[in-house]
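#onboarding

Welcome to the new folks! Below is a worked example of what a typical request in this channel looks like: someone posts a single protein sequence, and someone else replies with the predicted structure as tokens. Don't worry about understanding the tokens yet, we'll cover that in week two.

Example request:
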Amino acid sequence: MRKAAIILFLFFSSLIKAKDNFKAKDNLDSLISAFYSDKQDTVRIRTLVNICKYYNSTDYMDSLLQYAKKLEGMATKTKSKLNTARAYFYIGSAYHGYQIFPTALDYYFKALSMAEDLQNKPLQVRVNNQIGIIYSHQKNQKQALKYFMKFAKVVETMNDEGTLARCYNNVGIVYKNLGKTDIASDYSFRALKIFQELNDSMGIGSCYNNIGVLLNIDNNNESAIDYQTKAMKIHQAMGNKSGVVISKMNMAECFLALNKPNESLKLLNEIMPVAIELKDNWQLRDIYDGLYKTYEKLGDPTNAFKYHKLFVQFKDSLFNMDINQQQQDAENSYKFLNKEKEIDLLKKNDEIKNLELSQSKTQRYILILGGLLALVTAYLFYIRFRQNQKRNVLLQLHNEEITHQKKEITDSINYAKRIQESILPPESLVKKLLPDSFVLYKPKDIVSGDFYWVEECDNKILFAAVDCTGHGVPGAMMSVLGFNLLTQAANEKKLTKPSQILEHLDWGVDKMLRQSAQTSSVRDGMDLQVCTIDFKTNILEYAGAYNALWVVKNNGSEFLEIKADKKIVGFNSGAGTDVFTNHTLQLSKGDVVYILSDGYADQFGGPNGKKYKYKPLKEMLLSISLQSMDTQKQLLDSTIEKWRGSLEQVDDILIIGVRV
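Example response:
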């Protein structure tokens, strides 16, 4: 259904408590008052540290940033390295809360360097944990593991069992993300044992959640449900709504795996309004995906199609939402840093208004206003009339501007379509290199995320069908990158072995999009098949990423499917270039090879509004394989259009057929 949800421990969410017994919430007002009234810098710095401690345990990141900046200024003034390091940590925490990860990392690394120089173990622990969490969120699991292990090495010398348990929990999650479930389970149970000894309900609930995820991965779904139920009860008792959503989502996934769609549907309907209330679009995306697959299993095509559309919309838009959220967080941070200036300005304006009001109440102005009342009323009506005229003119101008902008955007996308079409191999080249072939190419939008590629190298013909993440403009941008890398592999690198071409493409996409960098990445890739054929020997070589190769042999009497590697090209999460399997087939005269994207099989339609699916497509290709290639293309096109009917096309469609 989805990737199971897990829980990481963050210091700024107050899950790891400070060592002292200071209760900042009870003393916040007096602390802020003391800061502005005290004269001694050392006392004011100590007060600032305690204020930052409080705000670091809340969601008020704007207040944390404000006072952390004050702490930085005073620590720099007094040349206090320890307090400067603390200020850097709290500033990083604020940007972490804003999800402005590059800036957060800059401050965390400054704090870590100073904490290591000062040999301050508690601060080293806090900073290493936060750095590890950011890398884990960015899917850079190897870097995350590096800093969590540094965290563990320091805390093991501090005799702090609670902090050590949280470290073990985070290490277990990273090993889970790296696919090492045995090691992940060992660390999760280590953490659980310590939390149980400490009677730490939050820690126990989180460990139950993560152990349940690991059991689900190992297909031990009954036990996974037991652990998720325990976790859910703890989250409910603590009022942790997000934790309850995570537990129920994981339980729903287990029920679906056990072929109990009704239980899955009940849980997903319970948590959907909670996720909407929490405004958690990542959880909503996964809930919609779960509902789509649950309704599909229940045989309800109307609701399946409804939630599949919602899932696709959320999946394609979340990357842009991340960018917009970062921009909004940065704007909020800027606005808050100017809040004091705005308050001063408002106070001055209030004083002016009060003075004007006081003067207007005098008898002299009352008499004057009484004598001029009629004139003023007429004047006000005149002013309102002029303002309405101006508004109408401005509204017309805005409408014209919007219409012009819409036309410019549409013209730009249409021009992008011409550019994309000019990059694709022309029909004349396809027919020259693959004389008995067809290409069925139907973009969902003006531009497409699917593309096809044909080249000649060392007396061999290379061809590929590529499905980039997304469709429309984002998919088209990915397609240009993929097309150039494939062409480079053939023309510059002289690669003819499909597995080597895929590995070059995987390396190139990962490098160009910086999928493993420390900054926020695109997290996109490609599914495709690459084939090389020697028409003199009729030997075909094939390698694939998620998309299989289909061959109809023996005059349409045998259907052969060669499975692809379950690896997405271009998304390596810091693990290096993937290695792909190369397959070699001896073909006979008249055999037909088919490569394609998933758009045809995933199209909704028919009398019940269901997906077309792969089985009917295979049967159709087998039945029409003896027809001419042009006829096959026409039959495929008319069939999917009839199937789709009045429903919209849900994805780009690409099928390539080649007869030997």
